[in-house]
Amino acid sequence: MQHSGAQQEAARQRTARHRPARLRILDAAHELMLTVGLARATTKEIAKAAGCSEAALYKYFASKEELFIQVLAERLPRLGPLLSSLAAEPGRRTLEENLTEIARQAALFYEQSFPIAASLYAETQLKRRHDEAMRQMGSGPHLPIRLLDTYLRAEQAAGRVRADTDTFAAASLLLGACAQRAFAYEAAEPGTCPPVDDFARRLARTLLGGIAVAPGPS
C-alpha cells in the first residue's frame, strides 16, 4: 500500500528530527540562504527551521559567518579540498584532466553559492562586516585563487607549466570565468549556456594553450 504525500512528508520530518543537531542546522541554513539570501537568513530563523533553539545553534557555530563558511564547505561542491590535494601531489594525471576537473567543480561551486551570497551586495555595511569576519577566520572568496595559484606553481616546478607563466593571473582567469558563468548565464536564454562539463573542458583547453609546456620531439 502506497503512502500518501502527507504521510511521506511526515515520515521525512520524523527522520530529519532524529539527525544530529549540527547537520539539521547546516541543512536549514543551506535551505534558507538559498531561498531568502544570506542577509535575511537570521540565526533565529535557521534555528527554528532546524527544530532547535538559537542557543543550541551557537553551541555548534560561533556566528552566522562561521555557519555560512561551513555551509559552503559541507553543502556545496568541495573546491578547496580538490585544489589542496592537487597542490600536494603535482604531476598526478594530466594537466588538462586536472584543470578540467577544477573548472567543473568551480563552475558548480559558484553556480550554487552565487544565489546565497548575492544579497550581501545589496547591503554595503553588512558585506563589510561579513568580509571582516571572514578575514578574521582566515577565509574568504580569495582563497580558491590562492590555492589554484599554489597548484599551478607546483606544476611549474614539476616542469609541466611554462616557467614564464604568471600563475596568479592564470588562476584568476580560470576561476573568474567560472564565477562569471554563474552570473552571466542566469538570465540567458535556455540552451545558450554550455553544459558544465563542456564548459570546463573548453575552458581548460584554452588556458592550457597559454601555459602548458609544449611536448618535446618524439
UniProtKB/TrEMBL annotation:
DNA-binding region: 42-61
Keywords from the named record: DNA-binding, Transcription, Transcription regulation
Domain spans labelled HTH tetR-type: 19-79
Domain of life: Bacteria
Entries under Pfam families matching the protein: TetR_N
InterPro entries registered for this protein in UniProt: Homeodomain-like_sf (IPR009057), HTH-type_TetR-like_transc_reg (IPR050109), HTH_TetR (IPR001647), Tet_transcr_reg_TetR-rel_C_sf (IPR036271)
Gene3D superfamilies: Homeodomain-like (1.10.10.60), Tetracycline Repressor, domain 2 (1.10.357.10)
Alphabetical list of PANTHER family matching this protein: HTH-TYPE TRANSCRIPTIONAL REGULATOR BETI (PTHR30055:SF234), HTH-TYPE TRANSCRIPTIONAL REGULATOR RUTR (PTHR30055)
Protein name: TetR/AcrR family transcriptional regulator
